[in-house]
Design brief:
408 residues, glycylpeptide N-tetradecanoyltransferase activity, Aminopeptidase, alpha+beta, single chain, 12 helices
Length: 408
């Protein structure tokens, strides 16, 4: 998703001056704006781990009417409740036209990777009614920064009910997830947000490729270009009926070892990237209907797997449109080309996404994505996505092409 800490950030934007705004973050072990580029500061952890016996053993205090709950995402009831909270209160675009609509299957996928901790799926409920009013999550991930592989928490889905946005719940929720992460002897975290807080390791931009231009224009996602008619626009974005690469097919379980080798080899070139093993690849990249899609290119001659592409599914609710209720969006995930040109591989990904009825295909300008964005008729979006590391300093911000990590 685009914005794990967006709810916090939006509330801070609304209620505080710039001076007050970063007071919370200035007390946290994150890179500070004043330190950017200071060559006297070493890279790596900012604070050393505390002995586990010194980590606070009891949860942080919530306002009187509320209590913590652990959200068991294995149960349908809890999944429903989390789904409803996010569907009605999670991230919207600046014009309040669209809101992310993570499916229950997506949430179960995103929140239960290998080695996940139930205790990191944290809810706040009203004591009296037991209604879920806030949510934050972490999942463990091995992330490589230059030569160091570090187990981190990926923090996501921070959401506070719209009616409680003034209660300053977000900082206490961030502290609580941090405390629970520390209890597992993990001292770093990665997260993204659509706003600037101290201090981004990279700032990326979303690009959008129209697959169903008429609908995108009708719902106000895109506008008709100057001197463009609807029919010229539809023609501009037309795609072939089927992939052009021979041996292009859906990934299967038997492909996991080959895809793991491919992805590991590819990701090794980036400064920050996940350290995937076969279990991770099976979880994150093996196709799951309406959640994640992965395709391989199998050489017709040697039967070797030479290329891989993937995207995940994240629809948005269209707010207040009489004709359409949902925008079906594909998000570029991990792509590796060794034999097929990346542009051709990604065009095939666009073709299969269009076939599956997606309206738009989104990609960040990270990894080598910039090499195909303009060529394949992606256009730059409004929003920026900022990447952050908690308790880990990088001396200078990364170029987007040095970033090999996609956070949902």
């Amino acid at each position: 998703g685009e914005n794990s800490i967006e709810a916090l950030a939006r509330r801070i934007q609304e209620s505080l001056t710039v001076e007050q705004r970063h007071r919370f973050w200035e007390t946290q072990p994150v890179g500070q704006f004043r330190d950017v580029g200071d060559s006297n500061l070493s890279e790596g952890p900012i604070e050393q781990p505390t002995p586990l016996s010194e980590v606070k053993q009891e949860p942080y205090t919530l306002p009187e009417a509320y209590e913590w709950i652990t959200c068991d995402m294995d149960t349908n009831e809890m999944c429903d409740e989390v789904y409803r909270l996010l569907a009605n209160n999670y991230v919207e675009d600046d014009e309040n036209m669209f809101r992310f609509n993570y499916s229950k299957d997506f949430l179960q996928w995103a929140l239960r990777p290998p080695g996940y901790y139930k205790s990191w799926h944290i809810g706040v409920q009203v004591k009296a009614s037991r209604k879920l009013v806030a949510f934050i999550t972490g999942v463990p991930a091995r992330i490589r920064v230059r030569g160091d592989v570090i187990t981190m928490a990926e923090v996501n889905f921070l959401c506070v009910h719209k009616k409680l946005r003034s209660k300053r719940l977000a900082p206490v929720m961030i502290k609580e997830v941090t405390r629970r992460v520390h209890l597992e002897n993990i001292w770093q975290a990665a997260y993204t947000a659509g706003v600037v807080i101290p201090t981004p390791i990279a700032t990326c931009q979303y690009w959008h490729r129209s697959l169903n231009p008429k609908k995108l224009i009708d719902v106000g996602f895109s506008r008709l270009g100057p001197r463009m008619t609807m029919s010229r626009t539809i023609k501009l974005y037309k795609l072939p009926d089927s992939p052009v690469t021979s041996g292009f097919r859906k990934m299967e379980l038997r492909d996991v070892p080959a895809v793991t080798r491919l992805v590991r080899g590819y990701l090794s070139q980036f400064v920050v990237a996940p350290d995937f093993d076969e279990n991770d690849v099976e979880h994150w990249l093996l196709p799951k209907e309406n959640v994640v899609d992965g395709y391989v290119v199998e050489s017709p001659e040697t039967h070797e797997i030479t290329d891989f592409c993937s995207f995940y599914t994240l629809p948005s609710t269209i707010l207040g449109n009489p004709n359409y209720s949902t925008l079906k969006a594909a998000y570029s995930y991990y792509n590796v080309s060794t034999k097929t040109p990346l542009i051709q591989l990604m065009n095939d990904a666009l073709v299969v996404a269009k076939k599956k009825d997606y309206d738009v295909f989104n990609a960040l300008d990270i990894m080598e994505n910039e090499s195909f964005l303009k060529e394949l008729k992606f256009g730059p979006g409004d929003g920026k996505l900022h990447y952050y590391l908690y308790n880990y300093r990088l001396r200078n911000p990364l170029k987007t092409s040095e970033l090999g990590l996609v956070l949902l």
